[in-house]
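stage 2 :: seqdesign
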Protein backbone atom coordinates (compact mmCIF):
# COMPACT_ATOMS: atom_id res chain seq x y z
CA UNK A 1 0.00 0.00 0.00
CA UNK A 2 1.21 3.49 -0.78
CA UNK A 3 1.54 5.83 2.16
CA UNK A 4 2.29 8.92 0.09
CA UNK A 5 0.05 11.97 0.01
CA UNK A 6 -3.52 11.40 -1.10
CA UNK A 7 -5.00 14.87 -1.40
CA UNK A 8 -8.73 15.10 -2.01
CA UNK A 9 -10.13 17.74 -4.33
CA UNK A 10 -12.48 20.08 -2.53
CA UNK A 11 -11.54 18.94 0.98
CA UNK A 12 -10.87 21.19 3.96
CA UNK A 13 -8.60 20.01 6.79
CA UNK A 14 -10.06 21.80 9.83
CA UNK A 15 -6.99 21.37 12.05
CA UNK A 16 -3.30 21.22 11.10
CA UNK A 17 -0.06 22.37 12.74
CA UNK A 18 1.96 23.13 9.62
CA UNK A 19 4.88 24.67 11.46
CA UNK A 20 5.50 21.39 13.30
CA UNK A 21 5.86 19.28 10.12
CA UNK A 22 9.61 19.97 9.66
CA UNK A 23 10.27 18.45 13.10
CA UNK A 24 9.03 15.21 11.59
CA UNK A 25 11.11 15.57 8.43
CA UNK A 26 8.35 17.00 6.22
CA UNK A 27 8.57 20.13 4.11
CA UNK A 28 5.26 22.01 4.42
CA UNK A 29 5.87 24.44 1.53
CA UNK A 30 6.19 21.64 -1.01
CA UNK A 31 3.22 19.77 0.47
CA UNK A 32 1.03 22.88 0.33
CA UNK A 33 1.94 23.48 -3.31
CA UNK A 34 1.05 19.88 -4.06
CA UNK A 35 -2.20 20.08 -2.07
CA UNK A 36 -3.18 23.22 -3.96
CA UNK A 37 -2.39 21.61 -7.32
CA UNK A 38 -4.56 18.63 -6.35
CA UNK A 39 -7.50 20.91 -5.60
CA UNK A 40 -7.53 20.92 -1.79
CA UNK A 41 -9.96 23.71 -0.86
CA UNK A 42 -8.53 24.69 2.52
CA UNK A 43 -6.30 23.95 5.49
CA UNK A 44 -6.88 25.59 8.87
CA UNK A 45 -3.46 26.17 10.46
CA UNK A 46 -3.94 26.13 14.22
CA UNK A 47 -1.88 28.03 16.77
CA UNK A 48 -0.87 26.76 20.20
CA UNK A 49 0.63 29.92 21.75
CA UNK A 50 -0.09 33.54 20.79
CA UNK A 51 3.56 34.14 19.90
CA UNK A 52 3.45 31.56 17.08
CA UNK A 53 0.96 33.59 15.02
CA UNK A 54 3.33 36.05 13.32
CA UNK A 55 5.79 33.28 12.51
CA UNK A 56 3.10 31.03 10.98
CA UNK A 57 1.68 33.83 8.86
CA UNK A 58 5.22 34.70 7.70
CA UNK A 59 5.86 31.06 6.79
CA UNK A 60 2.54 30.13 5.14
CA UNK A 61 0.70 33.39 4.51
CA UNK A 62 1.49 33.31 0.79
CA UNK A 63 -0.41 30.01 0.43
CA UNK A 64 -4.01 30.84 -0.50
CA UNK A 65 -5.39 27.53 0.78
CA UNK A 66 -4.20 28.23 4.36
CA UNK A 67 -6.27 30.08 6.97
CA UNK A 68 -4.93 30.93 10.42
CA UNK A 69 -6.18 30.70 13.96
CA UNK A 70 -4.56 32.13 17.09
CA UNK A 71 -4.74 30.30 20.38
CA UNK A 72 -3.35 29.21 23.71
CA UNK A 73 -3.21 25.46 24.23
CA UNK A 74 -4.17 24.40 27.77
CA UNK A 75 -0.79 22.71 28.26
CA UNK A 76 0.82 26.15 27.82
CA UNK A 77 -1.28 27.79 30.53
CA UNK A 78 0.87 28.65 33.55
CA UNK A 79 0.24 31.10 36.41
CA UNK A 80 3.46 32.96 35.56
CA UNK A 81 2.65 33.66 31.93
CA UNK A 82 -1.10 33.51 31.43
CA UNK A 83 -1.84 37.25 31.68
CA UNK A 84 0.93 38.07 29.22
CA UNK A 85 -0.24 35.35 26.81
CA UNK A 86 -3.85 36.56 26.92
CA UNK A 87 -2.75 40.16 26.34
CA UNK A 88 -0.74 39.13 23.29
CA UNK A 89 -3.65 37.08 21.96
CA UNK A 90 -6.02 40.02 22.40
CA UNK A 91 -3.56 42.22 20.51
CA UNK A 92 -3.26 39.62 17.72
CA UNK A 93 -7.03 39.39 17.34
CA UNK A 94 -7.28 43.18 17.10
CA UNK A 95 -4.41 43.58 14.64
CA UNK A 96 -5.74 40.61 12.65
CA UNK A 97 -8.71 42.77 11.73
CA UNK A 98 -6.54 45.41 10.07
CA UNK A 99 -6.65 45.89 6.30
CA UNK A 100 -3.17 44.52 5.56
CA UNK A 101 -3.47 41.41 7.70
CA UNK A 102 -4.60 37.88 7.13
CA UNK A 103 -7.69 37.64 9.33
CA UNK A 104 -7.75 35.25 12.24
CA UNK A 105 -10.54 32.72 11.56
CA UNK A 106 -10.85 31.20 15.05
CA UNK A 107 -9.58 31.28 18.62
CA UNK A 108 -7.76 27.97 18.99
CA UNK A 109 -6.64 25.78 19.96
CA UNK A 110 -7.79 26.28 23.50
CA UNK A 111 -9.40 24.04 26.05
CA UNK A 112 -8.72 21.75 28.97
CA UNK A 113 -6.07 19.05 29.27
CA UNK A 114 -5.72 17.25 32.59
CA UNK A 115 -3.83 14.38 30.99
CA UNK A 116 -0.66 16.40 30.42
CA UNK A 117 -1.01 18.84 33.30
CA UNK A 118 -3.65 18.68 35.99
CA UNK A 119 -1.52 21.06 38.11
CA UNK A 120 -3.31 24.13 36.86
CA UNK A 121 -6.77 22.60 36.48
CA UNK A 122 -8.60 25.58 37.95
CA UNK A 123 -6.46 28.07 36.06
CA UNK A 124 -7.18 26.23 32.81
CA UNK A 125 -10.93 26.69 33.34
CA UNK A 126 -10.56 30.35 34.27
CA UNK A 127 -8.32 30.93 31.23
CA UNK A 128 -10.75 29.14 28.93
CA UNK A 129 -13.51 31.47 30.10
CA UNK A 130 -11.34 34.52 29.40
CA UNK A 131 -10.56 33.08 25.95
CA UNK A 132 -14.28 32.59 25.34
CA UNK A 133 -14.86 36.25 26.16
CA UNK A 134 -12.17 37.25 23.66
CA UNK A 135 -13.65 34.96 20.99
CA UNK A 136 -17.12 36.33 21.45
CA UNK A 137 -15.86 39.94 21.40
CA UNK A 138 -14.35 39.26 17.98
CA UNK A 139 -17.25 37.04 16.87
CA UNK A 140 -14.89 34.14 16.31
CA UNK A 141 -15.50 30.43 16.85
CA UNK A 142 -13.40 28.45 19.33
CA UNK A 143 -11.41 25.32 18.49
CA UNK A 144 -11.68 23.21 21.62
CA UNK A 145 -9.20 20.64 22.90
CA UNK A 146 -10.51 18.31 25.61
CA UNK A 147 -8.41 15.59 27.19
CA UNK A 148 -9.11 13.83 30.48
CA UNK A 149 -11.34 16.81 31.34
CA UNK A 150 -14.77 15.71 30.10
CA UNK A 151 -17.00 16.80 33.02
CA UNK A 152 -15.24 20.16 33.36
CA UNK A 153 -15.48 20.83 29.62
CA UNK A 154 -19.17 19.98 29.59
CA UNK A 155 -19.77 22.31 32.55
CA UNK A 156 -17.89 25.08 30.70
CA UNK A 157 -19.95 24.50 27.53
CA UNK A 158 -23.20 24.65 29.51
CA UNK A 159 -22.15 27.83 31.29
CA UNK A 160 -20.69 29.73 28.35
CA UNK A 161 -22.37 28.22 25.24
CA UNK A 162 -19.51 29.08 22.86
CA UNK A 163 -19.69 28.78 19.09
CA UNK A 164 -17.04 26.38 17.90
CA UNK A 165 -15.81 22.89 17.28
CA UNK A 166 -14.79 20.00 19.50
CA UNK A 167 -11.57 19.14 17.71
CA UNK A 168 -10.24 15.59 17.37
CA UNK A 169 -13.31 14.14 19.03
CA UNK A 170 -12.12 11.29 21.26
CA UNK A 171 -15.04 10.37 23.52
CA UNK A 172 -18.21 8.38 22.78
CA UNK A 173 -21.68 8.83 21.30
CA UNK A 174 -23.17 10.02 24.60
CA UNK A 175 -20.61 12.79 25.02
CA UNK A 176 -21.03 13.62 21.36
CA UNK A 177 -24.80 13.98 21.79
CA UNK A 178 -24.15 16.54 24.54
CA UNK A 179 -21.75 18.47 22.28
CA UNK A 180 -24.33 18.50 19.49
CA UNK A 181 -27.10 19.61 21.88
CA UNK A 182 -24.85 22.46 23.01
CA UNK A 183 -24.52 23.65 19.43
CA UNK A 184 -20.96 22.59 18.65
CA UNK A 185 -19.47 21.27 15.45
CA UNK A 186 -17.59 18.00 15.91
CA UNK A 187 -14.34 17.26 14.08
CA UNK A 188 -12.85 13.80 13.61
CA UNK A 189 -9.18 12.97 13.13
CA UNK A 190 -7.00 9.93 12.53
CA UNK A 191 -7.87 8.24 15.83
CA UNK A 192 -11.29 7.49 14.28
CA UNK A 193 -9.50 4.76 12.31
CA UNK A 194 -7.80 3.03 15.27
CA UNK A 195 -9.03 -0.51 15.92
CA UNK A 196 -10.03 0.19 19.51
CA UNK A 197 -11.92 3.44 18.74
CA UNK A 198 -15.44 1.98 18.94
CA UNK A 199 -16.84 4.92 20.89
CA UNK A 200 -15.40 7.47 18.47
CA UNK A 201 -16.89 5.59 15.51
CA UNK A 202 -20.29 5.43 17.24
CA UNK A 203 -20.05 9.20 17.71
CA UNK A 204 -19.00 9.75 14.08
CA UNK A 205 -22.07 7.83 12.94
CA UNK A 206 -24.52 10.08 14.81
CA UNK A 207 -23.27 13.62 14.11
CA UNK A 208 -25.74 15.43 11.81
CA UNK A 209 -24.29 16.33 8.40
CA UNK A 210 -24.47 20.04 9.21
CA UNK A 211 -22.17 19.69 12.27
CA UNK A 212 -19.49 17.41 10.84
CA UNK A 213 -15.84 18.42 10.27
CA UNK A 214 -12.72 16.44 9.44
CA UNK A 215 -9.09 17.10 10.30
CA UNK A 216 -5.60 15.63 10.34
CA UNK A 217 -4.23 17.33 13.50
CA UNK A 218 -0.93 16.76 11.67
CA UNK A 219 1.83 15.99 12.51
CA UNK A 220 0.01 14.09 15.27
CA UNK A 221 -2.49 11.23 15.11
CA UNK A 222 -1.63 9.45 11.86
CA UNK A 223 -4.50 7.24 10.72
CA UNK A 224 -4.18 3.48 11.26
CA UNK A 225 -2.98 2.77 7.71
CA UNK A 226 0.01 5.08 8.16
CA UNK A 227 0.38 4.86 11.92
CA UNK A 228 3.99 5.34 12.97
CA UNK A 229 4.68 7.74 10.08
CA UNK A 230 4.42 11.50 10.61
CA UNK A 231 0.94 12.74 9.83
CA UNK A 232 0.45 15.40 7.12
CA UNK A 233 -2.36 17.06 5.15
CA UNK A 234 -2.21 14.33 2.49
CA UNK A 235 -3.45 11.76 5.02
CA UNK A 236 -6.89 13.35 5.32
CA UNK A 237 -8.25 10.81 2.83
CA UNK A 238 -7.99 7.94 5.35
CA UNK A 239 -10.20 9.73 7.85
CA UNK A 240 -12.63 10.90 5.16
CA UNK A 241 -12.99 7.28 4.01
CA UNK A 242 -13.48 6.04 7.57
CA UNK A 243 -16.17 8.70 8.12
CA UNK A 244 -17.89 7.66 4.89
CA UNK A 245 -17.83 4.00 5.98
CA UNK A 246 -19.31 4.57 9.47
CA UNK A 247 -21.94 6.96 8.11
CA UNK A 248 -22.87 4.78 5.11
CA UNK A 249 -22.29 7.57 2.60
CA UNK A 250 -19.75 8.28 -0.14
CA UNK A 251 -16.41 9.96 0.49
CA UNK A 252 -17.57 12.69 -1.90
CA UNK A 253 -20.53 13.38 0.37
CA UNK A 254 -18.27 13.61 3.43
CA UNK A 255 -15.99 16.05 1.58
CA UNK A 256 -18.94 18.16 0.43
CA UNK A 257 -20.54 18.51 3.86
CA UNK A 258 -17.32 18.94 5.87
CA UNK A 259 -16.01 21.62 3.50
CA UNK A 260 -19.33 23.46 3.52
CA UNK A 261 -19.35 23.35 7.32
CA UNK A 262 -15.74 24.52 7.63
CA UNK A 263 -16.55 27.50 5.40
CA UNK A 264 -19.62 28.33 7.49
CA UNK A 265 -17.86 27.98 10.85
CA UNK A 266 -14.62 29.78 9.97
CA UNK A 267 -16.12 32.33 7.56
CA UNK A 268 -13.84 31.28 4.71
CA UNK A 269 -14.45 30.52 1.05
CA UNK A 270 -13.15 27.30 -0.51
CA UNK A 271 -10.00 27.92 -2.49
CA UNK A 272 -10.19 26.97 -6.12
CA UNK A 273 -7.44 27.27 -8.73
CA UNK A 274 -10.09 28.74 -11.07
CA UNK A 275 -10.25 31.86 -8.90
CA UNK A 276 -6.48 32.35 -9.03
ZN1 LIG B 1 -4.00 20.50 17.54
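stage 2 :: out
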Amino acid sequence: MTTGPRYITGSIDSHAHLELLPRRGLEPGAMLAEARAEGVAGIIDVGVVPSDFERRVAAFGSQPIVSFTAGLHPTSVTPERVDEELALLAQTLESGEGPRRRPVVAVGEVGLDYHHSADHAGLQIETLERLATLASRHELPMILHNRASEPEMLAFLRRVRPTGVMHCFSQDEHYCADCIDLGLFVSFGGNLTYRSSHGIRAAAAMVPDERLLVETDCPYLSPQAVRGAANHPGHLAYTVEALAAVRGVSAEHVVAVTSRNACALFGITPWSEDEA
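stage 3 :: structure notes
- The first helix runs from residue 28 to 37.
- The pocket of zinc ion is lined by residues 15, 17, 46, 109, 217 (CB under 6 Å).
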